[in-house]
Structures
1.
Amino acid sequence: MKKMHAELFVSSRRRHSGFSLAQLCILALLLCLTGFITPVAHAAPAPASIRYDAATRVFRIDAAGTTYVLGVNEHQQLQSLYWGPRLGAGDSFPQAKAMPEAASFDLPVTTTPHEFVGWGGGLYVEPDLKITFPDGNRDLALKYVSHKIDGNKLDIVMKDISREVYVTLQYQADAETGILRRSAEIENRTDAPFTIEQAAAATWNLPRGTDYRLRYLTGRWGAEWSVQQQPIHPGKTVLESRRGTTGAQNNPWFAIDREGGNDQEAGGVWFGALGWSGSWQISVEQDQLQQVRVTGGFNSFDFGYRLQKGEHLQTPYFYGGYSSHGIGGASRLLHRFEIDSVLPHAPHPKLRPVLYNSWEATGFNVNESGQMELAEKAASIGVERFVMDDGWFGQRKDDHAGLGDWYVNPQKFPHGLKPLIDKVHSLHMDFGLWVEPEMVNPDSDLYRKHPDWVLNFTGRPRTEARNQLVLNLARPDVRAYVFNFLDKLLNENDIAFLKWDYNRNWSEPGWPAVAPEDQKKVYVDFIRNLYSILAELRAKHPSVEIESCSGGAGRVDLGILGLTDEVWTSDNTDAYDRLLIQNGFTYAYTPGVMMAWVTDSPTWVNQRTLSLEYRFLSSMQGSLGIGANLSKWTPEDFATAKKMVAQYKSIRETVQRGSLYRLITPENNSEQSVTESVSRDGSQAVTFAFLHSSREGYPFPRIYLRGLDADATYRLSTLDGKLAPDTPASASGAYWMHRGVDAQLRGDFRAAAFTLERVGGGTAEK
Ligand code: GLA
């Protein structure tokens, strides 16, 4: 699968090449072998196809289990016709027809389901594009001009009825998952600049209906990834960030299914996610004629992008997909898409190494001998990457000073970082380092020298958060400074990994150095520069891996995931809280990038005491890290940790790359939670079960596995905890899925985990 993402915004003019036939064949074969689309082996999906019927002016996109249809109506508008399960090859659609005038209050332009509509005429629903021209005109009516089909890509050009404003709607279909990537490129061919006040990537229209339910993700620092559900009623729900960054408060992801008849594994689900790490907006709207549409892109709040004659603006990507296998199936499609088409090195992103991070052990108090000691201990349990967190640079003693001054602190590291890095290498680990490149403390040499480098409005207060200000990365000099210090750091030190942090959101987002009409471009140019720095660093230092962290999960989206290898899930490392946090994370993002540390008990978050085994099993559901203070561990702790790290290595490919089934979710204060991951080749399944508190002697609910080959034989091994004595050592996939497994979990905060290894039989051997 061709990587669909990394070049994003580096050049707004570049087009992505499609998937090669050879790649598609390999994929098809792989899919056939692994039975990915539905868990038990089925025929491979046909490659994506895009067809245009000139007689009806209908475009039809087929990919995996999904069909998407749009057409040009009698007013030359682009109209959505269908989005859902794949239709019969011979099915056809008549020409699109705009809605009639329902009433003098609801004109056709408002009630017709547009693919992409300018604000003009009598449009009252969310527009995709709103422009103010220099003469005061704000009316925009986009009509079809031409199109181009190139393999799995479709470009449709639209133009205003009188002005030289062109918009190219871009579609790219993924043959493996059916996920469509949509974006729009807006071009000014008039002879004067104009200001774009609102720009979406796309509108997704659902079949008419009144029984829809919306799922979305909310959170805050220390409590990210809450899954929300609500019926879609007439009116509008806006999911957004106005923070200049993705934000933990809403994540740019949605899923819509029909109320009743849907669960984790059954029912139709329409879902989507934005690839944008700046202020964003997704509005979910049910109009007066019960049409549901989802429009997403740049946040229109405080937006204003002045486009000069001849310039283009590329909107973020808006990905959308459909699953017939419930919200669980929707998540699995997204996970697979992220791994195969979004992450760096897709379709073969590297497995996450087991890492150690010093933050919770030492805080800012890092030094050469202390870090070396921790490194020795970390290596003894099988850690593969040692990461030194905050505190190593400038005059950084706490969070009051030092950000911006990226030299190694000479008191803490008198000989530079080399002795520590050499030590880490001698212990057969690679070395990672924490940085927070876009920030500055007022108490720093950088700020004293360049007070004008931060976001600010002249003469207004500069609001600090965690004693820091945001550098204006949109400025070319700031971009150069940030790139250069990182490049130098990587040139001078053997660093395998950067934990890239971003510990506050914007305030006073002014850019006084440019003309007032251009200052709001900061919302776009900042993020473009962030992406281009990441892309350039990766190109110059191809073996370096990067984690996106923002005080936890404040910057996780399909944009940053194209340029970073993993993300920090939450600063909340309480292993019980993490069950809920991680559960929400996986609705949108793969466990393959979900960093999860084992930390100390009682946890700083809740003062809750949890066994080391429980903490490990909680973290082993994602990408395992250790963040505990190893100086306090007993020999028994080391022995347990060593055993569990080794166990993790034997299942990590399944956890990080496999198909995830949420068998029992921890939502709604559930007393239990159970997840299962099945490896891509179907040879291994790993199940984690957690009990909060047992009550009134009820046994733990029976665990019914999923995604196995009913006819194959699987051998069971317990990783930790107890299963019922009558559990067979091996049995068929049918047995594990239909008779199920009983875990003997009683008491408070108990956990168990087991694997099933395929030992023979089944479809593959028939
Ligand atoms: C943020 C991160 C933490 C840690 C601190 C360091 O809060 O999320 O993991 O790196 O910064 O200051």
Note: The chain has a mean pLDDT of 93.
2.
Amino acid sequence: MYQFAPDPGQPKAELYEDLAKAAATLVAGERDPVANMANLSALLWQFVPQLNWAGFYRMVDGELVLGPFQGKPACIRIPLDRGVCGAAAASGTTQLVEDVHAFPGHIACDAASRSELVVPVIRDGQVLAVIDLDSPEPARFDGEDAAGIERLAALIAPLL
Ligand code: SME
């Protein structure tokens, strides 16, 4: 049994430090990509407050396909020219969206979502997946969140 105990009151830098350590512990010695993405989704859900969705979309034959996640059922396939996830995958760059209603082409999988952070998972210059976090709070995410999730993306990139 794994028992991680995030402290919701701790500063973000510490929270992401603890999250990175927990994630490294979980994926150590495990090569199965679905198992690792599933556990990282669960960790994100447990550690990062104010989320209504957290998980992965994988690049499959040139489009994003839903992977392991926590939250409500979500749209299954996302073309690269659609949505915040598509923008992250097409550009290979983190997308930090303070107001999803102002993002052209945003895909509302959950009407409660107000802000979003999407980080590409890149190995050898190829986008293999994206990590998507949604929040019902406007402007929920900042540079510290982006840096914390980019660290997770770097951890899982060799394992996908
Ligand atoms: N909002 C995303 C779609 C995925 S769901 O949020 C889970 C987007 O615009 O790409």
Note: The first strand starts at residue 53 and ends at 60.
